[in-house]
Fold this protein.
Amino acid sequence: MPSSPVLPANLSTSDAAIVTSRLGRRCFLVLAAIALAYAFLAGLHTLSEPDLGWQLATGRWVAQHHRILSTDVFSYTAYGGPWIYPVGSGLVFYAAYLLGGYALLSWIGAAACLGTVALLLRRGSAVSAAMAIVALPLIAVRTAPRAEVFTIVLFAAYLSILWQNYQTGRARLWLLPLLMIAWVNFHLGFVAGLALIVAFAGLELLEMLFPGTRRREAVERLRRAAPWFVASAAATLVNPWGWGIYRALIRQNRAMALHSGWIFEWGSVPLNRVAAARAFSLRGAHPFYLLLVIVAIAALVALLQRQPGAAILLLGAAYQGVRHLRLEALTGCVVVVVGGSILFSAMPQIGSRIHNARIRSILATSAVALFALLAFTGSAALVKINQESRSTFGTGLSWWFPQRAAEFIERQDLPGEMFNSYVQGGYLAWRLGPKRRVYIDSRAIPFGPEAFLHLSDLLQASPDSALWQQEAGRYNINTIILPLDRFQSELEVLRNFCNSTGWRPVYLDEAAGVFVRRKPETEDLIRRSQVECATVSLPAGPLLSSSAGRFNQWADAASVLAALGRNSEALAAADQARLIFPNSSFVPWLRGNVFYAMGLRSEAEREYVAAVSVEPNVPLFWFSLANLYKHEGRFSETIHAQRQAIQLSTMPQPLQLVKLAQLYLEMQQPRAALETFDEAVRSAPPDLLAATGGRSFKFQVDQGRAAACRSLGDMKRAASFDDEAVQDLLPRK
């Protein structure tokens, strides 16, 4: 961010340039130092990624067996199925765990975040340092210890090298194939490196459209880079499976539609008026939306500077970040390096329009101070409790993992196989393996697309149902471990499991519950360890010393107590959490749920409104308000709240859109209903559209469309939709 200082009248133009350069350099050094300190603090948090568990288990398995696994060995439902995944990251994490435990793994996350920003600023300016401060929250999320962290760091390295070569024609391109050998053995994200190579080759081809010097320089750069680009592509074959690594990429790509509908990080950034308004509000500010504004400005500047390649690169990176939340950090990297460079090159022209040197100096200093304040505010927020995050500032294992429940299972040596949820599987494969295998884990791919739906069906069914009896008999399942922290939807089914006759609770805390199948060989354990869900004391263990730890204990305890219908105790636990963190949005939302369950609608509305006022961009809070308004017959307010929730959601909401369309029907707004039904179908994943039966998604949509058409007097279309609804009842061939 160059600026012009106040210069003596007799200072020459060349001397002025030197002084200006020195000030710009000082601004860069200050902002870069702030960005690096911020990066280290942002990256230092407790381990919370579900994937880390199975990656640690992978490292342990390879170290113990001295060979690379190519089939699943961690589960009993997909055991022996094909599984190809780079093992280098698992070996690194396992070695770090042996050397320094979970704490060292947390420090690796901090070092990765710091290293990523350092690579992005390797040849940066004050502008790129300022961009790094904006993008840092997004980068820090993706540099948590898991295999993906290597993609973030190596992507930053590739981007820095390739952009340097594009700008100067002089870069250490020989590093690219060496880095690729490491990348392909650390994470499947190595394809992002290949994408960068293709993108920069495309940039050089675009440069050839310009005659004269630009064309000659582009030809020379591409001629010099081509052998290293080819070598980098060939380096992807330096892995235990050779070409087979691409089979893993193909399987992952085929599963992307399912992942986008079920897994949060593969959801998309909402781009609509409601989300944008919330994103730029003081309370709901989100850095990615600011990055999109920066991309738009930088792309326009690039076009004005006749650099269409840079504009396309920026817009392409923004598109990928919008498409998948998981790619926001890579978008941030491109904005820092490419956007920062483009905007920095425009600063002299902007500065020349401000003739007063003192004003230019004040503006530059104020800009540095503004970004420094942004970094300070972000750093200060790190040490506070964030009830929307699974991790907290510091080192070690996060609070949400079922550590005590796993210890109980291990100590009691429970017979048979263990059923667990998707999010728990990785940790349990690491903590209880290799002696115990898991039902499912966050790898997703080995289990197939139907695993998500089947898991959901099981959890929604009564544990005494024929579905559960069949599943338990098929796999010899005698133990169920349910996640119960407040982020889990399994809380909704806890009471069903507590009231089961075929399964009995033998362990329960605020993070997880363990249920054992009633059989002759488990009767003794049930007598010794049976837990009474109606009276068990929560929090179950001693309170932690940190305020974040105590808040999480009380907040989770309140959630479990509410799920068990122990309303007065849930309110008391929520009050304890609120004493620790008065500005929590979760606590009033939970209190609203409890009041709603007690039939106290006005009190529930007050609490829901309080939650929304603290965190207006959380869809769940708006959905709760919509549900309350609907039951009170306040349809206009219901529609507003429902629409707010849907437009703020990062995941597709086809079922909620159907509910909204049905509300429009009740309010005699058939055209709005038809439009909303169409929107629901467009957002629905293939598995939901393919389901049949009287309660299926497609049946509800076609029935609703028929009703809307009848209201509009279009009997022909109504009959057509009625016919489709009948077809929805029939099994598909």
